[in-house]
Amino acid sequence: MRPHLLKIPLNPEHSFNVRYDIVSHFYKMWHFHHEIELVYIIKGSGLQFTGDHIHPFKPGDLIMFGSQLPHLWRSDEIYLQPNASEKLEAIVLHFSPDCFGRDFFSLAENKQIAKLLDTAKKGIRVNGKSKESIAAIMHQLLGSEGSRRIILLLQILEVLSISAELEIVNQQSNIEFNSATEIDRLNNVYQFLLDNYTREIELKEIAEIANITPHAFCRYFKSRTRKTFSGFLIELRINHAAKLLIESNKSVSEICYESGFNNFSHFNKSFKSIIGRTPLQHRKSMLNLT
């Protein structure tokens, strides 16, 4: 799947961009951009792909994407239906690494911020009090003008640079793609899997989508995602099952088969391996939080 290079529009009176989005779905194509991105989810849910990592997103999440880091959003089906009335909402901040000048973040006083921006190339999930503080500043940014905007952005970066509540999304560095053909191929594969992961998918079928042989596909997919094809498919299905366990009253066995599994024992084992607890433990734990 080719990550699209997005050009972020910029008001000529501003050195960086912040906006409040109300949309039918977040951008669903695998893409990247030069600008660093900070997204605070206000309304909406689905799956979020950052590099080789898959994670559900929900209201209250705060995620930072570094420069050139490929990512995509897969909103839940409720937002993707024709004539869907439900909307997703988020505050989205984009700023170039050199928005304050080429050497600004190289200043001795900005050493911690420079380290943060480098770490963001692996993706960062912000938690706890740090998230609450940054979300409040992002709300202020929406209505600010002049030098106040710069001060608020620097406050956000300061909070992030000293926070102990950051979760690195990708432990390994981002995979680079050397040709348009190979990234187009992976783009097609991702979109097909996202549309069909709850049904049985034969290796031959997905290899045809990539226009290579089944044997070559297995090697290719592992080299570009650091995951086996079967492992990636299981991860998609388990994330779907975890969501159904919280949002529906269906039995665990119903959810097992609805998520694309045809073996209950394999489902339980895979769920515990990925989520860290059994399906019933997950349902009980998450419902106790509400």
Give an overview of the whole structure.
Helix 2 (111-119) crosses helix 4, helix 3 (128-142) runs antiparallel to helix 4 and helix 8 (229-247) crosses helix 11. The model has no long low-confidence stretch (mean pLDDT 89). The strands form three sheets. Strands 2-9-4-7-10-11 form a six-stranded antiparallel beta sheet, covered by helices on one side. It contains eleven helices and eleven strands. A hairpin with a 2-residue loop joins strand 5 (46-50) and strand 6. The protein has two domains: 4-168, Jelly Rolls, CATH 2.60.120.280; 180-289, Orthogonal Bundle (Arc Repressor Mutant, subunit A). The protein has helices spanning 77-80, 111-119, 128-142, 147-162, 180-196, 203-210, 214-225, 229-247, 252-258, 264-275, 279-289; strands at 4-5, 17-23, 31-32, 36-43, 46-50, 53-57, 62-65, 71-75, 88-95, 124-126, 166-168. It is globular and about 60 Å long. The chain is α+β, with helices and mostly antiparallel strands. This is Transcriptional regulator, AraC family.
Q: Output the strand order for the largest sheet.
A: 2-9-4-7-10-11
User: Radius of gyration, rounded?
Assistant: 20 Å
Structural class: alpha+beta
| Number of strand segments | 11
Q: N-to-C SSE series?
A: EEEEEEEEHEHEHHEHHHHHHH
User: In percent, how much strand structure appears in the residues?
Assistant: 15-25%
Q: How many discrete structural domains? A: 2
CATH topology of the largest domain: Jelly Rolls
* 3D shape: globular
